[in-house]
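Per-residue structure
===
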Amino acid sequence: MVSADLKRRVNETPRLKRLAYGLMITGFIIIAASFVIGIALGLSIADLFENAKSVRDAAAPDDAATRGILSQQGTIAATTAWLTPLKFLGLGSFLAGITTILYVVIQSLKLRAESMKVSLPIILGVEEKSAE
């Protein structure tokens, strides 16, 4: 007969499956947020480059007219510094989710093979020969 443990394992959802979906969704959200932030950063860069190069280069912190240019340059530099690692974090999380799903598929195939090995003689009505 088919053991109760085998029946239970075949019918339950793998725990890693939920983790994998969580990793994939988290990765996708991080990638989407990085994309939106990148668009906003591009608009900010376009706004900065509307000023002439001589104005950008001559910007001084004590000049009220050009203080905004320096602030904008600092924001662009700071955002660029953390945006690239954030993109890689999202991509890594998404790929870790895919890898976990593939692991779950392999484990599920092994379990199904074990289940078939036990069930097939019962389905065909063939008695198992004992190795005596």
Notes: The two ends are 20 Å apart (CA to CA). The chain is about 80% helix and 0% strand. Residues 14-123 form one domain. The chain has one domain: 14-123.
